[in-house]
Design a protein that fits this description.
36% helix; 2 domains; six-stranded mixed beta sheet; 15 helices
Length: 421
């Protein structure tokens, strides 16, 4: 049984083909610069050199066709025809309140995803385009939606309710939803396994830090709070998103600068965060280099602001869930950014976090799980590479086999102590 996982972003499509019987990745890759010109595919097959092809993809439908063409290519492909694929799993960023778990996509499900696309205007439209494109290319196999928001639907009402007119929630669904759910699910279960405990016996703060950043407070194995809100704009400092700010600032700047709602939304989503502070960078490697060399006066400030906000989230979430067993760093910056991790937990010894600075500085890999605290640290800090595609795959297979249930009762392979990366 081969399962194809698709993750359609606004200008990219990530994919992974997984052989369920052999429990191994057959191929994976990404089509980049979709819709914006000069697009290309990077195709990776274990044991072979990576393959790159320039191929213009003006829309996601062409990008999906390119992936299929590459997977079936006589020289670089891994399947003889697409009949070998049993199902397709699709990442969908926003499911609103309608979806609390992964589901088979039918017309009603697709319509429901379209109904909430205004809540994630940068993400849901390309997700929908990818679903429709894949359905047209692979019409005879099941297509499964895996929602970023589903994992966080366990949040209690006080955590997801905003102090706004309640009718906004009733009429428009204005509440906290949270995102990166599959990532938080995966690393929290891996952390529980590394602690030698059941997820139901663990309190964990998970920190997904990439260009997009979100954190989750996980109590007894379930998400009870998370930093992103109605949209992915709320929460931590991100590459180009502002995260938490005084809500009066947008109206003030609109008045001062004469900006429209669409323009201020673009600034908050695309020109703020690390980019807003530094004026030129989003990649933390560039920011760190700029701070070290002194050629970007505001790079050090950006690092300090981001790390300070990370520290506040660790503390507030520890308070919210009554103490923690572990903090998990994941995603590109979380896995590779030793300096940001160090600054984020600096001074938290009073909470039981004792960092092994040398081990932390030597942990810059996306291929190993590492404990970066000292052996006597009461609270552990883990660096765990996330694997959202594996969550996709296991959900898809379970749905096909009729064994799928909520994540606390479903036995994911990666929740075992014996699981190997």
């Amino acid at each position: 049984m081969d399962i194809l996982a698709l993750n359609c972003g606004s200008s990219s499509v990530k994919y992974q083909l997984y052989d369920w019987a052999k429990k191994q990745i057959i191929a994976k890759g990404m089509v980049e610069r979709v819709t914006i010109g000069d697009s290309f595919i990077i195709h990776e097959v274990p044991g072979k050199e990576n393959y790159r092809e320039e191929y213009e993809c003006p829309d996601h439908r062409i990008a999906i066709h390119l992936i299929i063409k590459t997977l079936t290519d006589k020289e670089h492909g891994v399947v003889t025809n697409m009949n070998e694929i049993s199902a397709v799993g699709h990442r969908v960023v926003h499911g609103g309140e309608k979806f609390t778990c992964s589901v088979t996509i039918d017309e009603a499900v697709l319509d429901a995803i379209k109904e909430v696309q205004h809540l994630a205007p940068l993400h849901n439209p390309p997700n929908i385009s990818g679903i429709e494109a894949a359905q047209s290319v692979l019409p005879d196999v099941p297509h499964i939606a895996i929602f970023d928001t589903a994992f966080h639907q366990t949040m209690p009402e006080p955590a997801y309710t905003y102090p706004l007119p309640y009718e906004w929630y009733e009429k428009y669904g204005v509440r906290r939803y949270g995102f990166h759910g599959t990532s938080h699910l995966y690393v929290s279960k891996r952390a529980a396994a590394m602690l030698g405990k059941s997820p139901k016996d663990c309190n964990i703060v998970t920190m997904h830090i990439g260009n997009g950043v979100s954190h989750a407070a996980i109590k007894n194995g379930i998400s009870v709070d998370t930093s992103m809100g109605l949209t992915p704009l709320e929460g931590a400092v991100m590459g180009t998103r502002c995260g938490d700010i005084d809500p009066a600032i947008p109206a003030f700047i609109m008045d001062q600068e004469g900006l429209s709602p669409k323009e201020i939304d673009s600034v908050l989503n695309k020109k703020s965060g690390i980019l807003g502070i530094t004026g030129q960078y989003t990649d933390r490697r560039d920011v760190i280099e700029g701070a070290e060399k002194g050629n970007c006066p505001r790079c050090q400030l950006a690092l300090d602001v981001e790390s300070y906000r990370l520290k506040k989230y660790i503390g507030s979430y520890a308070a919210a869930i009554g103490g923690i067993d572990a903090v998990v760093f994941t995603a590109g910056v979380g896995e590779m950014g030793w300096l940001i991790r160090e600054k984020a937990v600096e001074g938290l010894e009073f909470m039981g976090i004792i960092l092994d600075k040398e081990k932390n500085r030597n942990t810059m890999t996306r291929k190993a799980e590492t404990i970066v605290t000292t052996p006597d640290s009461p609270v552990k800090v883990f660096v765990i590479p996330t694997d959202e595609e594996l969550v996709f795959t296991e959900d898809v297979v379970a749905i096909l086999e009729g064994t799928y249930t909520d994540h606390m009762n479903f036995e994911y392979s990666f929740a075992s102590e014996s699981f190997q990366l």
